[in-house]
Amino acid sequence: MHEAGPDFIRQFGRWLRRGFRHTADQRMGRLEGKIALVTGASDGIGRAVALRFAAEGASVIAVARSEEKLAKLVADAGQNRIVPFQCDVAQPAQVAALGRFCRERYGHLDVLVNNAGIGGESNVRVHELPIAAFDQVMNINVRGAFLVLQQALALMLESGGGSVVNMASIGSFRATPGSSAYITSKGALLMLTRTAALEYVKDNIRINALCPGVIHTPILDHAPESLIETLAAQVPQGRMGTPEEVAAVALFLASDEASHVTGASYMVDGGRSAS
What we know:
The protein has helices spanning 6-27, 44-55, 67-77, 92-106, 131-159, 180-199, 225-233, 243-254; strands at residues 35-39, 59-64, 82-86, 111-114, 162-167, 205-212, 265-268. The protein is of the alpha/beta class. The protein has a single domain, classed as NAD(P)-binding Rossmann-like Domain (Rossmann fold). 47% of the residues lie in helices and 14% in strands.
């Protein structure tokens, strides 16, 4: 076998660089021309998803209860790809209005990221948890996700398919004492994901769950350093994840790159669920 000469090595290097550039070009604009709906888009993971999807070419309908935060999201995006829609996902009439808005403005829907959710009360045992507190978490995290999913599925059926990403949690698999309402809601959302994935698999609609672990969202911006260190210590990687890291996985699941992925649950937890 002959030794490769300098000319061959240079040519091979140029070929590799062209290949990497071509791959990078293919990966940009992975949602070009798509219509995406993102709930809970005003903060944290939802905000990161909305911004990332818009950067990848999608027209994003950003949904949240806070009109002020939605306006800031649109301003920060610096483009016309994000359209705000104020909505409380726990209110059926408001979610129905959201569905009509999507249909009237765009005529179809390609992607849903069902992200709206709350944590609810913590450090409260089951027998001490007020029914109203339990209902509030379930109304938003489960009922709200169900209502939005209904509207999205109707639109996707009309247009021949789509992709849904339900924002579940590591709490869908691991119990945390003192957080019964939240843990119950995320377990329910995981099973809703799996059931719907099987029901609509023949309709070219993919439905998956994204399960973040400990993520550094704005709610922790003013938390004591001791709490940050405690949370980070729970993660084998030694740090909390970022909303942008979760958004990157949401992008994969929403895009055609995940065309053979449905009914799955993707952990984004720095290895915590492996232990």
